[in-house]
Amino acid sequence: MDTNQNSSNSDIFSGIEKLGFNINTSSLYEEKSDQTKDETKAKNEEVDEASLLYDKEQKCPACESYFKVRSVKTNAPRLVSRDSDFFIHYSNINPYFYDVYICPNCGYASLKRDFEKLRQHQIEKIKSDITPKWKKKYYGITYDVDVAIERYKLALLNYFVIESKDSSKAMSCLKLAWMYRLKNDQQNESLFLSQALEGFNRAFFSEDFPIYGMDRYTVMYLIGELYKRTGDFDNAMKWFSKVLTTPSVSERLKDLTRDQKDYINEIEASQAKASSADTDDITANTEKENTDTKKRGFFSSLFKK
Ligand SMILES: [Zn+2]
């Protein structure tokens, strides 16, 4: 919808392509200005992004129909940086946007690496609880962060309905948190980080490793990191200490863990300095507790059955 509206603002002739006319202009009268050049440049960049994608034929394990998934070409994304909770920033194209597969026929959706792992009772659940409600949607040639959020949420809904492992729900929540980080939406980022934390915490004690390619120690670190990012420094320190006192952990992971401990120590030192300004702090803490209770209520059924 939005895409149509946007293009109609800048493109007088949009909508008549199906009649055979494909003319792109934002103005009937002006001479070609710098602005027009910029728009042409923007369109070319869009074309470039599309050229980094291809359609992959995929069979749906739930309804057995074939469909095409937008897939990122190998080596197309360029790694820019890595956050301490393993989120990777890319240039060129963002592979996270294309990480969810959705069957347009039956509504089954999951993270790419889980798509073919369906059990018979889960297929029955999709047929009874997902497909009858499913309305298929076309997401365009290239996806953006809002499309990605919608697709991750549909995957999360599927995992929830078919009673997938806690780690699957946790990983979807972590990726949703990352998408909200891209939007600078801290409230939703923190909501999904705490859901990811709960899921990984459960998975740590009940599932086999590796979990999404992470060994036991990496998940230990991640749990500490999620506690850190959601403001529970005591628990973060406990998990970080477990990583540091385990002999078989790689030096690379230990270094990363020490960096996060240092970060917490710095924050706590600066908080201790500021603690003389008292009354405002009490109000802020009460507000935080209220929000936490609300979040818990909203999501309480995601992991607890
Ligand atoms: Zn299907």
UniProtKB/TrEMBL annotation:
Record's compositionally biased regions (Polar residues): 272-285
Keywords assigned by UniProt, alphabetized: TPR repeat
TPR repeat copies, ranges: 217-250
Biased composition annotated in UniProt, kind: Basic and acidic residues: 286-295
Pfam families cross-referenced by the UniProt entry: DUF2225
Stretch list, region Disordered: 270-305
InterPro entries named among the record's database cross-references: DUF2225, TPR-like_helical_dom_sf, TPR_rpt
Name of the protein in question: Uncharacterized protein
Protein species of origin: Clostridium oryzae
